[in-house]
Amino acid sequence: MINKEDVFQIGRLGKAHGVKGEITMQVDDDVFDRVDAEYLVLEIDGILVPFFMEEYRFRSDTVALVKFCDIDTQQRAQELTGCDVYFPRALADDDDEALSFSMLVGFDLINAATNLSVGRIDSIDDSTANVLFCLDNGLLLPANDDLLERIDVKQRQIVMNIPEGLLDLNV
Hints:
There is one protein chain. With 171 residues, the protein is mainly beta. 8% of the residues lie in helices and 44% in strands. A hairpin with a 6-residue loop joins strand 8 and strand 9 (132-135). The chain is elongated.
């Protein structure tokens, strides 16, 4: 069984494309194009299910067309519309330089000054030029490279230099 801790969300399936089973996928992260992966994980009725890819191609920076194995008709592809798409953490590149923001969801954020946890990253708000870590306790912190001291993929922790007084603004 695949657990949510073992994957990170990279997109969502849209509508069927054509009659041979292709489907559009809105992508937040192109990790499946950078890392050799034969499958993606779809959430169907709350269960994470691996789907092997026959092929894919990008239509734009944020949309890909995906053809999954054994999905050979428009009707079968339509059944997958709206499914969230995940990528296995075990296949993702452990190189800190290649980490994407979506891979950091679920990591604990540690204040470098106190060495205490500030919260767990629940989501990433990248709707503006200033990307924010949205923590499970409601705090919002800037996801600025200058503030990040260390990312420990194995421990699933981010150590961050949080400017003095910033945590008080979130209260």
